[in-house]
């Protein structure tokens, strides 16, 4: 079974620029999550999709962050404009629909540095 | 709101030692709890998943226990090796299916 794919692995941008991250979940996984992990901290949920609908985006800074999941498969997370405090690892995860007893599978993450 | 705490924040042990990592959570109404390993600059690798109805799970040298009533989980690593050096994260899945994480325990196993 292929894992969760994320790209790019690394990105360096200047503040006020825009950036986009891409995620391809495990085939058949209906639920997709984006997490932000600041250095030295645990991951924090930004947004959760079920198929192509948003389930939870309560912690997404909507003035600068946006996300979409076209056709309930791939997802993109965008930041515009970026701030220095957005420097973090952005992790994508997926899990199977139908039972909350399923675990999460994470991708390798995208490390963003804003200078 | 679920809060997850991991103790200790960092741990350094000599190779071969048995060790215990601790995770506590405030909302005992969880569906499951998952332990992950994270190597520097990498994503999260799932180690063990414990359902709310289970008391423990084992995989090789790893054993995770769950006590919902007290809001605690432990990860036991037997005969530690330098390759076990990583950050270990505990994640609790409660209502709404969100996985809430602790800050992690950074483990260093010295040869």
Task: Describe the structure in your own words.
The complex is a heterodimer of chains A (115) and B (111). Helix content of chain A is 0%, strand content 48%. Chain A is built from no helices and eleven strands. Chain A has strands at 5-7, 10-13, 19-24, 31-37, 44-50, 53-56, 65-68, 75-79, 88-95, 105-106, 110-114. Chain A is globular and about 40 Å long. In chain B, a hairpin with a 2-residue loop joins strand 6 (56-59) and strand 7. The chains are: A mainly beta (115), B mainly beta (111).
Q: Outline of this structure?
A:
The complex is a heterodimer of chains A (115) and B (111). By secondary structure, chain A is mainly β.
Low-confidence stretches of chain A: none
Number of helices of chain B: 0
The assigned structural class of chain A equals: mainly beta
Which structural class best describes the helix and strand composition of chain B? mainly beta
Helix content of chain B: under 10%
Q: Roughly how much helix do the residues of chain A carry, as a percent range?
A: under 10%
Largest sheet of chain A: 7 strands, mixed
Low-confidence runs of at least 5 consecutive residues of chain B: none
Question: Radius of gyration of chain A from the CA trace?
Answer: 13 Å
Strand elements of chain A, count: 11
Shape of chain A: globular
DSSP E strands of chain B, number: 11
Beta content of chain B comes to over 45%
H and E string of chain A: EEEEEEEEEEE
Distance from N terminus to C terminus of chain B (CA atoms, Å) equals: 41 Å
